[in-house]
Amino acid sequence: xxxxxxxxxxxxxxxxxxxxxxxxxxxxxxxxxxxxxxxxxxxxxxxxxxxxxxxxxxxxxxxxxxxxxxxxxxxxxxxxxxxxxxxxxxxxxxxxxxxxxxxxxxxxxxxxxxxxxxxxxxxxxxxxxxxxxxxxxxxxxxxxxxxxxxxxxxxxx
Amino acid sequence: xxxxxxxxxxxxxxxxxxxxxxxxxxxxxxxxxxxxxxxxxxxxxxxxxxxxxxxxxxxxxxxxxxxxxxxxxxxxxxxxxxxxxxxxxxxxxxxxxxxxxxxxxxxxxxxxxxxxxxxxxxxxxxxxxxxxxxxxxxxxxxxxxxxxxxxxxxxxx
Amino acid sequence: xxxxxxxxxxxxxxxxxxxxxxxxxxxxxxxxxxxxxxxxxxxxxxxxxxxxxxxxxxxxxxxxxxxxxxxxxxxxxxxxxxxxxxxxxxxxxxxxxxxxxxxxxxxxxxxxxxxxxxxxxxxxxxxxxxxxxxxxxxxxxxxxxxxxxxxxxxxxx
Amino acid sequence: xxxxxxxxxxxxxxxxxxxxxxxxxxxxxxxxxxxxxxxxxxxxxxxxxxxxxxxxxxxxxxxxxxxxxxxxxxxxxxxxxxxxxxxxxxxxxxxxxxxxxxxxxxxxxxxxxxxxxxxxxxxxxxxxxxxxxxxxxxxxxxxxxxxxxxxxxxxxx
Amino acid sequence: xxxxxxxxxxxxxxxxxxxxxxxxxxxxxxxxxxxxxxxxxxxxxxxxxxxxxxxxxxxxxxxxxxxxxxxxxxxxxxxxxxxxxxxxxxxxxxxxxxxxxxxxxxxxxxxxxxxxxxxxxxxxxxxxxxxxxxxxxxxxxxxxxxxxxxxxxxxxx
Amino acid sequence: xxxxxxxxxxxxxxxxxxxxxxxxxxxxxxxxxxxxxxxxxxxxxxxxxxxxxxxxxxxxxxxxxxxxxxxxxxxxxxxxxxxxxxxxxxxxxxxxxxxxxxxxxxxxxxxxxxxxxxxxxxxxxxxxxxxxxxxxxxxxxxxxxxxxxxxxxxxxx
Lengths: 157, 157, 157, 157, 157, 157
Known about the structure:
Six copies of one chain form a homohexamer.
Chain A: H1 3-9, H2 38-51, H3 58-63, H4 67-81, H5 89-102, H6 106-118, H7 123-146
Helix pairs in contact in A: 2-4, 5-6
């Protein structure tokens, strides 16, 4: 609904706050039957096969509003996160959690903490991960506040 | 030098940009001989012993302007980063790099990339670390832009 | 309610988490009848006239707790966003969405995505906007992680 | 619940968004009876004594999932925020609110705005605090967008 | 100089990094004689009168590339920062430093730390300010990482 | 050079700050002759052909330390930024500048401001772009500080 239509529907509201939602909200309407689109179905099928689960989480259901965006995002997630490489899968998820916390993405903090737990992150490791992030945030702000000059030995250029 | 003293010293500068520095700058003047303070010396000695090096990087030299801040920061860094725990030391440094990049702390990106290299991070791992951070930044912004609702299965409360 | 009053009202709660809200929360209580203040009414009337709608969204209802803040914020929004200028109105909203996502402001992502849609942003443009933001976030972190030196040709000083 | 268990429990959900929560969510399950752990009880007792209230807010109840993290965090909060020093307690809370807004921490914005109000922050001061933060955000982005060189007189190195 | 012109001027550079600047850089060329524009001169004169100094720092010299932006920014800085109000001037500067550190604006960290020093901030207060910012950054990330639900008593809505 | 080697090379430095660099620094050493690698040469050739210039800016020279990262990053930049689409090329660059400022990436602010200028951004548009970013930063912080609830009419879910 556009704001002006909303206003027409709510003529008595001038002196009180507008109704607010108790439910999660999004900026797009997710597609009702996304897998009727064969390109979406192909991505969802690959997610299920790669992750060995029938569960498709909301991130992919919402990205399905644009098939190209869905395809390119999943292709990159699969290549970077689900392909054996020089960093083990649990470490990858802990790095992802770190970035998600710092980027302030509540959805991603939830989904990647769940993924890390599924990959074996213990409560002790979770607590330690948060301790490192908290310490880094602290020293990062101290260095920025003092504008500490970079030591010459750190340069690789 | 205070701005008003600067102005008095630079009476001819009203119509041109003020001189700007070609050199690294900081917001405090580092103490000339910090280890003449025994509490600073104790911290620096502990850094040298813990890290098995005589090198004291600028972060600690600048933090020495306030002995309490120096002591408490080093104590936490030593406890979290230099004590054997459930996360290996290279992974810890990669998490620290991630936070430092996201917090936009140039000094910390330099110092912790150097530390990770010293602890064995290969160029392939460095590239992969950056790929994960870059991917997370991307999906983090997508989730925030779409305001994707958190799946109920992710909740632990 | 102050924390200590809350504690007195909840003496049995020591061994369980405190009740948490299912509803949206704010840090101030919005004024019940804001337009009884003629300065607030003047701003709300100008918002309605400028936007050609009777709808006043929550941002303005909450800012009304401080009349000066309300007036100065609206004056700047009107001048920058609602005055014909060298950037078209849809582009302005897409820039605003970009900043809002990066600043992690959920409210602003919602309100400006709605505004951009009202000004004609198509789903294809929305998806493309998010693709650009996601790509920028990615390359921004890569450049920060590598600390790439700025090319001399980019300087304008 | 792990994602794969969730999928098994939700076999019919393939063509619709997964259920989403109307309630606040967290990434860990808070401990049901945290004060049965004497180290947790000691921290909670010290919080109550220091703050002169029986109320323990959620931050501490959730941090109790890791006793060391709880103890070290409270020790630092007590030392920095609850010990008489060169900055008065209301100013400290206003600085804390500023950081919390900029770090995008909704929980912390709420808790420290409540704390500042409890310590006497008036609505006028609250509005003015927000005005300063808003102005700083504005000029910060302008300086970054223009990449204004630092004036030599500002250097202390 | 545009990138393509730069390339034509540097035909031998294909196999080596392009020259990089040792000097501070900006994204615009500051106006050589800004006060020949009477509107710029009026702003600069008001800055000098308000601050009781002849010194005009680079921020204003660079903002002078757009007279409207210069005027509106200075008007807001003067109103918020240089007008007696419910928050004292030193506290205002400490709040500004906090926001500048968190927004990662190096220029602003420098200029507002200098301003706070000029207004009487002691080294002890500077260290304490940084300690609060560092602690807030730490607890902010912990609360975001745990997704701690907001306590109902904090709500004002 | 590793920190411990640095320390051995600098035995006299214990009581003075370590030397700091006057020059731009990076966290990796750029490859001396990157185009001797045919995959790097293919990317650089495509950049030259796509952008109609012989100039290869540092971002690509540094990314060449990892061929896969170089290839995947350029492929995405080419697809999103250099392919005709529903958003015009100048608007794309202005969105990219916005994200770069908010992510605090100095390199990216420089390179994309130069790119936008090359694509016709006028000084008036540049000033207006910065005004929108500055205003958004301001209202974003106000909404976060007040924790304004999202209006129900904005929801699309």
